[in-house]
Amino acid sequence: MDIDHIFIFTDDNGKIADELVLFGLTEGSSRVHVGQGTTNRKFYFDNFFLEILWVHSEAEIKSDLMKPTGLWQRADTNSANFSPLGLCIVNTDETESLFENAYKYQPAYFPIGLNIEILTNEKKPNLPWTFRLPFKGQKKNETEPSEHKYGLKKLTNVEFGIKDYNEEDEFIEQFIGKEKIKFTLSETNSLTLTFDDHKNRLTKEFDKLNLKVKY
To answer: For a surface tag, which of 6, 45, 127, 212 has the fewest beta carbons within 10 Å of its beta carbon?
Structure first.
């Protein structure tokens, strides 16, 4: 399975993304998700982008439209129960079984009939909020900057640290044997992104995001 993007919810209006910029990542475009109550800052690479996400309208994210998505629970960064991480998987035939029983969410910012399919994982909230977009295949973001300090280019591995890891979980079983996405036991809900097969053997930690970047 390929990854379209990963989001991390924050509670500081996205200011934490300044640490990524100071590290040497080049920031791309940002957007307001109309009707969803969220805003982002994004960092693009050759095959993926990282999204720093926050709530700009509590009324919107807790509206009747949004409640079934469970997104508002992920936005509560003070909650120890719900992971603030979201995993967007590229929409391919390979992912049909994973999203077979997904909740279909019609965003206000997409044309009618284009749904985001969501696995809320609300019964196992330490797992990431997982979804796929209605567009088939990997989207190319040719207008976004993707040149970064230290030459970070291609995401080659993602590791989600979760507090209640169980390899027999039906969700986790879907990823066993997949090269790019891995779940491991962790004291906190954390994220490790490995770029370019960790060729420089260097690691940068962003403690406030529970994020490690290996490059």
So the answer is: 212
Residue identified by tokens 């399919």 is: 117
Q: Which amino acid is at 96?
A: E
Say which CATH number the domain at 192 has.
Answer: 3.10.180
Residue with token string 């969803």? 36
Distance from C-alpha of 20 to C-alpha of 148, rounded to nearest angstrom: 11
Q: Please give the backbone phi and psi of residue 94, each rounded to the nearest 5 degrees, phi first.
A: -60, -25
Residue range(s) defining the domain that contains residue 110: 3-140+147-214
Bridge partners (DSSP) listed for residue 45? 48
Question: 195: which strand partners?
Answer: 155
- Judged by DSSP in three states, 75 sits in helix
- Concatenated DSSP letters for 65-89? TTGGGTHHHHH-TT-SSS--EEEEE
pLDDT mean over 30-52: 96
* Cα distance between residue 174 and residue 162, in whole Å: 16
pTM above 0.90, yes or no: yes
Count of structural domains within the chain: 1
Q: Work out the pLDDT band at 164, boundaries 50, 70, 90.
A: confident
Mean pLDDT of 89-95: 95
Average pLDDT over residues 56-79: 93
**Helices within the chain (DSSP H only):** 17-23, 58-61, 71-75, 170-173
